[in-house]
Each structure stands twice: as structure tokens, then as C-alpha cells.
Amino acid sequence: MKSWSSPQIPDVAGKGKRPTVFCSSHRGPADTPRKLKQARLYVCGITPYDATHLGHAATYVAFDVLQRVWRDAGVDVTYVQNITDIDDPLLERADATGVDWRELADSQVDLFRSDMEHLRVIPPDSYIGAVESIPQIVDAVTTLLDRGAAYTLDSGDVYYRVSTRIEPPFGSTSHLDRAEMLGLFAQRGGDPDTPGKKDPLDPLLWRAERAGEPAWDGGRLGRGRPGWHIECAVIARDHAGFPLTVQGGGSDLVFPHHEMCAAHATALTGETFAKAYMHVGMVGYQGEKMSKSKGNLVLVSKLVEQGEDPMAIRAILLSHHYRSDWMYTEGLLAEARTRLAHWRRAATSTTDPAAAEELLQDIRGNLVDDLDTPAILDDLDEWAESVGEAGGTAEATALIVDAVDALLGITLR
Question: Which residues contact 22 (CB under 8 A, 6 or more apart)?
Fold first, then answer.
């Protein structure tokens, strides 16, 4: 599947360092290996039954910044993202709206591409749908069955055994106790009460064909469609390779999705799924987490249609640390507009060369320290107040403008 066009990224003088990020599974900082020359980044993509809201945008902008920091440090990045273009929520929305599920998915993927272009997010090298990966998923599920890591119910549905012995063991990603796992599993797409399962936590690998639902040839598995977690394990294996340098997504994916992905991948290959897991905080609106099920969405596409500058939207997202949970308000948008205008006025003035060099080092230093973008935006506010003083040059201003573009993805000219 095609992704979207890449933004033009200017070169910046000097060279940055590899970042330290917070790893959910380590529950602490994870250093990017000093000798790292290549990074494998996998970020879980959308289920395309609705447009991109600010919670989605916060996730993809955060990992876009990670890519930019890696590239500034001379690291070659392989970036893979999936699209869950067949799943229950998509089929339910298609049924509710009377739109063919394929048309719905195609329209929302197109809108997502447009949103990412507006936000100047670097596209993945491989943008892969679940549907186009079904042959590989079938092979993977069949392999798990042959190894005793999966079993088939009388219905024809195939489930993974969470009791399968792997290293690191199941639970190492989320560090949740069983009661917490069961609660989240039921809330986030799992089916703990399905009769016949060996363990309530066992996740679906292959759903046997049901009347009125799309299905594909599964060979020995029979006709059906893939489960959610095995999709990402297979796409990551085939297009990025293990171990991933970073597995990324929203914090609501820690369990069950990333826990199950890691289990499937390790059971399949014997390799560690990811060296580090980065998770982005949740964005709320009107007092609750922003979600499609609640309907309290602030959509990127709608803001752009209303004439908002995508760079102001990106500035809102970067004004919060990627790990933090926060609430969107219209006041944040007004503040971002003012900030952006202030920076853009500064971009037409002159800057003291020594101050520009110091600011560039501060930008790089804050990014290396767990992508501390809020601190950088505060520094830019101070820079914008100081431009135009005696001894300043347009070249020094251009250095800052290019750095903000290359490292934060915000254009000031």
C-alpha cells in the first residue's frame, strides 16, 4: 500500500546524538546503543473506520520527532507502519453507515495520508495493510499450530496459548498482574468469556468465516480472517526485522496489543520482539479520553478545513511531552497560533550567531533527553523575544529556522 509524500527536510550544521527514551517494558530510560547505525522502528497504525483525531496525531508526531533525531545523529532508519484494514470495528462502522467496508477503509486511509502530509510527518518505508499480508499471516498461524503454541476451537477459530514458554516470558512488556490483564483484555478487543478457550487471556489468531463477513483462504486453517495482534507481529517481522529498536504506539496499546505482539513474534522466531517500547500519552477532550467510541473527537482534517495552520496543530502536540496525558482545549489552539506567529516574525529578523549556536545545542540536547519538546518550545519563545539585537545576522536566524524545520517538523517560512 502506498504511504504519503515525504516533507523536504533541510540539512542542519553539525551532528546530533542518539536519544535516550523511556521504555515501558524496562520502566525506565533506555539508551539507544552508542554504535547504532541502523534503527528499526515499528509504529502501530490506524484501523481506518474514522478520521485522524488529535490522539492519533500526537502518536505519529512523537515518533516522527524520534525519526528526525535519529537521522540528525546519522542513523539510518527503517520505519514500518501497518493498517488494520480488516477488523470488527471497521465492519461494524461499515454496517452502521451502509458503506462497503472496503470503500470505508480506502476513504479513511486517504484522509489519514492527507493529515500526515499536512502535519509534515515522515512517511514509513513500508506501509502495509493486514489484507495484503494475509498469506504471510496464514503461514505464521499454521506454524504456531504446528509448534503447539496455538489450538483450534470447534468453531474453527484459532487461538494463541499465552502459556507458551518464551523468553522473555509473557507479561514482560506490560508488567501487569493477571487481574489487570483480564480487565484490560475485556475492554480492548479481547474475548475472555469465549467458551472452549484454554485460558481466558488467549488471543484470537484466526477467525473462521461467518455468514456475511469477508473471508480469505486460510489453507489448513479454513476460510477466515486474521486476528489483530498476529497482524503486527508478521508485518514487523517481514518488513522491519527483529529485534525492533523501538516498538511504538499509544499507551492504550501496552496491553493487550504489544504484549501479544511480542509473544507471537517470539514464539514464531525465537527472537526478542523489541529492545524498547515507547508509548505516547492519551489526549482527552471535554473531560474524557478522546476516542471514537465516545465521539469526543477533534479531527485534524476538520481543523485544517476550518483554516487552521497545520503547523499550529503540530505546535500544540509538541507543547506536551509525548508521555504525558493531556486535555485539548480551544485555548491551546489560540496559544499555538500566537506562538507560531511570534516565531515566524522572528524568522524574518536577525539573530546573534553565538546565541543561535547555543539554541541549536539546547534543541539537540533536549531532544536527546527523552524528546523534551516542551522545553524547546519555551526556548523558541525566548529566542523570538531576543531577535533583532545589534550584531545579529540573517544567517544565524536561518540556522534556527532550519533546525526547527528539520528536528521539530515546523516550518517558520
Answer: 28, 29, 30, 278, 323, 370
